[in-house]
C-alpha cells in the first residue's frame, strides 16, 4: 500500500464519524520500488497531486515514521511546488515506497485495519456496518 492511498482512507465503522482520519500507520515492513517497477517520475503529475493531497494528514503520518528519514514542511509554498528536488522526494514517498506489512488504526475507535502483502484490508465485520 502506498502513502498516496493511505491519504484518502478513513475509518468507516458504524458510529465512527469524528476524528477517523488520518488512520494511524504502524509499519512493520516497507520497500522502495526501483524506477522500472514503479510509475515514472513526472513533475507535472506530482504538482497536480499536491493540489489533491490532504497535506496535513500526510505530514502527521510521515512524522510518525522517523525511520523513513523524511521530514515534510508545514505547508507547500508555490516555490516549493516547483522545486525539482522536493517533487522527486515526494514521488519517492508517495509512488515508489510501499508498505508491505503493518496496520492502520483509527484514532477514534481504535479499529485496526491490517496491511498484508501490500494490500490494506478495509472490510468491516457484519456488526461494524
UniProtKB/TrEMBL annotation:
Q: Which GO terms describe its molecular function?
A: protein heterodimerization activity
Q: State the Gene Ontology BP annotations.
A: rRNA (guanine-N7)-methylation; tRNA methylation
**Gene3D superfamilies membership:** 2.20.25.10
List the InterPro entries: Trm112, Trm112-like
- Pfam families reported for this sequence: Trm112p
* Protein family membership: Belongs to the TRM112 family.
PANTHER family associated with the record: MULTIFUNCTIONAL METHYLTRANSFERASE SUBUNIT TRM112-LIKE PROTEIN (PTHR12773:SF0), UPF0315 PROTEIN-RELATED (PTHR12773)
In its UniProt entry, what is this protein called? Trm112 family protein
The organism is Halteria grandinella
Amino acid at each position: 500500500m502506498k502513502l498516496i492511498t493511505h491519504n484518502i482512507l478513513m475509518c468507516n465503522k458504524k458510529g465512527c464519524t469524528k476524528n477517523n482520519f488520518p488512520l494511524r500507520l504502524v509499519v512493520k515492513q516497507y520497500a522502495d520500488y526501483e524506477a522500472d517497477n514503479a510509475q515514472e517520475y513526472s513533475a507535472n503529475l506530482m504538482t497536480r497531486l499536491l493540489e489533491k493531497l490532504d497535506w496535513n494528514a500526510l505530514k502527521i503520518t510521515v512524522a510518525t515514521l522517523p525511520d523513513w528519514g523524511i521530514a515534510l514542511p508545514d505547508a507547500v509554498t508555490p516555490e516549493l511546488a516547483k522545486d525539482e528536488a522536493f517533487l522527486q522526494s515526494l514521488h519517492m514517498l508517495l509512488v515508489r515506497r510501499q508498505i508491505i506489512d503493518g496496520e492502520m488504526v483509527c484514532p477514534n475507535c481504535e479499529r485496526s485495519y491490517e496491511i498484508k502483502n501490500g494490500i490494506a484490508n478495509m472490510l468491516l465485520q457484519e456488526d461494524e456496518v
